[in-house]
Design a protein that fits this description.
By secondary structure, the protein is of the alpha/beta class. It contains 18 helices and 26 strands.
Length: 606
């Protein structure tokens, strides 16, 4: 996030210009500088003396979180966002790796944190972002009512002090939690159960509760001189995979990466940027930091409500936005989005584009205008490729060109650069690429992920991804499959590539709003494909069903496909399908339909 020195620079030039909008609260650059300075001073006096000092947050976008992140950046303390919907065992493992000395959270997520334990947990500082001073003594501060849109009148004071009203985190969707005895252990964190037991014992034996309302930090007296930043690094949690991984980026390339983003999208101080995606999503936080760095206004939304987002775009005269795929789909399906192409100043909407289909692209063009940019982004590579609105009209799904300052190439099995048109393993170099893994600094896993080679611009250090892809003559990358990290039933590389191509074909069908392809191996279904879809309109389910059955039989004839119409496909804000939640909803229906079909067949035979 932006640092205090940068905020003061903007405040000196435009003291009364608005920096942050959160509901009815509007913070000027002067007010934001004062709030960040006070919170930084409050943290200096309260943080435990540990090294390295790291913080995490469990909260949706809010003015309080923005101030907290800026204060941490000023002190050189990396503050990493955590997905509250991830499985508890995985969250435990991530906390053990980060070992934060400070946690910023809302009342909604406080029960989740109280069930977690990590080595420094008993002494860690817990800051309740949406609590008032009256909540400090309570063991479980009540959640404040969620705020709506621009009409909300329960605002805090000018300096961003909480006033008893709050928000839900928004956008966090729950994943399936296996029953007792079913969940697999999270490997790679030795002694995790011992750590949990020791931490809980320390809490039970009277370890001090360091939770305090955020407003207490805002009441701190500014220091005459803030201490020098402890260290500068940026950490991101990698979702999925066999065990938790955390990427590390040093500060050296931050400035160059910011310049690349500004040059790519033309951001400037006249922009108004809407954040409609959780800030724990690296793309969302990176764009918010960039827009604040150039002096733009940032509008925060944690409601994930389509009507609220549409109202904000119009009322705040939003020019740029980052919207997670789930929220974008709801916005485009809502009648309130129909006039946005004609009434607003919107020129750029960025969303993770790995699973965005033809309906979304076409409807966005119709309702929002030519503004939708599909981003190819991972925690390891950062924002590496983009598909512009014009290109998305003619290009296939999962296609993009390298971002400015980024080089994308394709390698063969021996690590040699392949010419255009030849498929292989995708490798990325640039200022947004990570430097290392936190849990394995300089170790074999990180070293094996990097190669140094010349792809036409001199020797560069490339990160070799798990994606398979092909570059065309114009330099556009199309992702064609996964090289590793696939689920257990899909480890046949050729079959996995066929399933990936099938899903890409289905996403390009104009008769579907959304779809997914999941391979399962279950007692009730055997080895099969589960293909849920959302029809393009009510009454068009039969058309979608026929198109999907035909495509599955053509692409993957060896595996039976169970096609089913659904009302909702669950996504994480990063654009990953929440597979466990999806299967939990559709597999019982598919099983029941199969049983009914068998009963009918038996009656006919009898």
């Amino acid at each position: 996030m932006i640092k205090l020195d940068d905020i003061r620079r903007h405040a000196a030039v435009r003291p009364d210009a608005i920096a942050v909008v959160d509901g009815a609260t509007r913070l000027s650059w002067t007010e934001l500088a004062d709030a960040v300075e006070r919170v930084a001073a409050g943290l200096v006096g309260r943080l435990p003396e540990v090294s390295p000092a790291r913080a995490v947050f469990l909260a949706g976008p809010s003015r309080e979180l923005t101030v907290a992140l800026a204060a941490c950046a000023t002190l050189g303390i990396p503050c990493t966002g955590l997905d509250p919907a991830q499985e508890p065992d995985r969250l435990d493992a991530v906390l053990a790796l980060l070992d934060p000395c400070a946690v910023f959270l809302t009342a909604e997520h406080r029960p989740l944190l109280e069930e977690r334990a990590w080595p420094g947990g008993p002494g860690a500082l817990r800051i309740l972002l949406d609590a008032t001073a009256a909540d400090e003594a309570g063991p479980q501060g009540p959640a404040r009512p969620a705020r709506g849109g621009p009409e909300d009148q329960g605002a805090a004071g000018a300096a961003g002090r909480p006033d008893g009203q709050g928000r839900t985190a928004g956008g966090a969707e729950h994943t399936h939690t296996p029953a007792e005895g079913e969940r697999e252990a999270v490997p790679g964190v030795d002694g995790q159960e011992h750590v949990r037991g020791a931490a809980r014992s320390a809490q039970a034996s009277g370890a001090p509760d360091t939770a305090l309302p955020f407003c207490r930090l805002l009441d701190s007296e500014p220091l005459k001189r803030l201490p020098e930043p402890l260290h500068r690094e940026f950490l991101s949690v990698v979702p999925g995979g066999r065990r938790p991984r955390i990427t590390v980026r040093r500060a050296a390339a931050e400035g160059r990466g910011l310049i690349d983003l500004v040059d790519e999208f033309g951001f400037d101080a006249h922009d108004t940027h809407l954040v409609a995606a959780p800030l724990w999503m690296p793309l969302s936080l990176q764009l918010a930091r960039t827009l604040l760095a150039v002096g733009a206004t940032v509008v925060l939304d944690a409601t994930q409500d389509a009507q609220t987002v549409a109202a904000l775009v119009t009322a705040e005269r939003v020019t740029t936005a980052v919207i997670d795929p789930g929220a974008l789909g709801r916005l485009l399906a809502h009648p309130a989005s129909a006039p946005l192409a004609h009434t607003g100043r919107l020129r750029c909407v960025i969303t993770p584009g790995r699973h965005v289909g033809r309906w979304t692209v076409n409807t966005a063009w119709e309702r929002l205008g030519p503004v939708l940019h599909l981003a190819h982004t991972t925690p390891e590579t950062g924002l590496s490729a983009i598909l512009t609105p014009e290109e998305s009209q003619v290009a296939r799904a999962r296609t993009g060109r390298a971002l400015l300052g980024t080089t994308v190439t394709v390698l063969d099995e021996d690590g040699a650069v392949l010419p255009a048109g030849r498929p292989g393993r995708v490798a990325v170099a640039g200022h947004h690429v990570m430097d290392d893994y936190l849990e394995d600094p300089g170790g074999p896993e990180a070293e094996d992920a990097f190669v140094t080679l010349d792809a036409g611009a001199g020797q560069q250090r490339f990160f070799v991804t798990d994606d398979l892809g092909v570059l065309d003559e114009q330099g556009r990358l199309t992702v064609t499959g996964r090289g590793s990290g696939v689920t257990s039933p899909a480890r046949d590389r050729a079959l996995d590539a066929a399933l990936f191509r099938l899903e890409s074909d289905l996403l390009n069908l104009p008769c579907l709003r959304d779809t997914a392809v999941v391979r399962v191996s279950l007692p009730s279904l055997g080895d099969a494909l589960v293909v849920p879809f959302i029809a393009v309109a009510v009454g068009r389910e039969t058309t979608g069903y026929t198109a999907l059955r035909t495509a599955c039989a053509r692409r993957v004839p060896s595996i039976p496909a169970h096609v089913i119409a659904v009302d909702h496909i669950p996504y994480s804000p990063t654009g990953r399908i929440r597979t466990a939640e999806l299967l939990e909803a559709v597999v019982p229906i598919i099983t029941l339909n199969l049983q009914l079909e068998q009963s009918v067949q038996q009656e006919i035979s009898a």
